[in-house]
Amino acid sequence: MEWLGKAKVEFTHSPSPRAIKEKDGTDTDLLKICEATTPPCHLNPLLFNGHVQTMWTATKPSGPPVFYRRRLFDADHATYKGSYAVDFAVEPFEENDPSLPHRTVYYTEAEDKSLGSDDKKPMVVVLHGLSGGSHEIYLRHTIAPLLGKGGWEVCVVNSRGCAGSKITSGVLYNARATWDVRQTIKWLRQKFPNRPLFGLGFSLGANMMTNYCAEEGENCVLKAAVVCSNPFNLDCTSKLMQNTLIGRELYLRVMGASMKNLVTTHKKELKEYTNLDLEAIEKVIYLHDFDREVQCPIWGYPTESAYYRDASSCDSVLSIRIPFLAVNAKDDPIALDAALPYQEFRQNPNTILLTTSLGGHLCWFEWGGSRWLAKPVCNFLNYMASKVDFDSVKPTKEAQVDEVPVPFDPMRRRLHVPQM
């Protein structure tokens, strides 16, 4: 059946999924909600495996138009000095800024000062993939149904230097860069105190969002979160891709080139704010080489493998205390099935792992070019925002464990960041 594009859908979950109450008093649970909001997965039969699905992205279809206005933030944490850009989805406009991605302009000073509302619209905070931004096609495909008549507000936190944003310090971003999304969510809580907030992450941004939810733990202010094509175990995925010709010479090479392009774009600033060996970076071919030359010296990791192990979000799954849905394709050639933390999802009743047998990396192309991914993501978010009693999805307390000499802490990181 898979050769006809009909993918198998499976859910990995705790034996006792988190209990949730709906607004009308009906008792349900997280698994039932995920099952009810996930439609059958019928993909384009001509794109018959993960490689073909993923490569089809290179055809660069236009995707749904989404318009953004950008706001710049100065970091409020001394360790993460610098600035970053957040793009807010807005109604269509005629302006154009050639320095920014298509359909993106800055807020005017007056508009920026007027930001804020007491409305109760649901709002989702989005994190993009490796070197992308709010303009990415997969991202626009997913959020488009939520906008306009969908009734949602959406903002995208662009990683530093991405999507036409400037680098203003030696602090860049990495796979566990949760500081900018944390500041953004705090700001949103102040400016829009009545809006229920949700999280959505893609690929590397999915890894960041997973880490953020886990780091916040029982203090997380998000009502729920969804992550798509999360690689979870970065060391595992990197090594497995290095060991195959297509993984190394296609995916790791392309991702390495995209990150090198970022360095080229910001070469002047990097020379001013960092001590990176720019000549060595120019010789980089693969993503793991890039991480060795950039992430390791910036963050103090001795090797790229040490960085991958520390930044991975597979253990983070155990510390999530809000309703959390992960969507992955088992034939994903980047976020590999072998790296998915199935056991961890079975341990945490707050989490569900939805896997499809087909779909590739952030693709799930259906016949006609639409993406199946948008359906379960938007259905889940709409259900959580409109039908669920928010009191029943407050972060749960840390689970009590049997007494052991040294308790396991999933969020004990090797890279220590001082708290402010």
Outline type? globular
The N- and C-terminal alpha carbons lie at a distance of 55 Å
Low-confidence stretches: none
Number of helices: 15
Q: What strand order characterises the main sheet?
A: 2-14-13-12-11-9-10-7-6-8
State the total count of DSSP E strands: 14
Helix/strand structural class = alpha/beta
CATH second-level architecture of the largest domain: 3-Layer(aba) Sandwich
CATH topology of the largest domain: Rossmann fold
**What is the mean predicted local confidence, pLDDT?**
95
What is the CATH class name of the largest domain?
Alpha Beta
* Overall number of structural domains: 2
Tell me the strand percentage band. Answer: 15-25%
Order of helices and strands: EEEEHEHEEEHEHEHEHEHHHHHHHEHEH
Radius of gyration computed on alpha carbons: 20 Å
Report helical residue fraction. Answer: 25-40%
Supply the CATH superfamily name of the largest domain: Alpha/Beta hydrolase fold, catalytic domain
Query: How many strands, which pairing sense, and closed or not: the largest β-sheet?
Result: 10 strands, mixed
Catalytic activity: an aliphatic alcohol + acetyl-CoA = an acetyl ester + CoA
Active site: 203 (charge relay system), 332 (charge relay system), 361 (charge relay system)
Organism: Cordyceps militaris (strain CM01)
EC number: 2.3.1.84
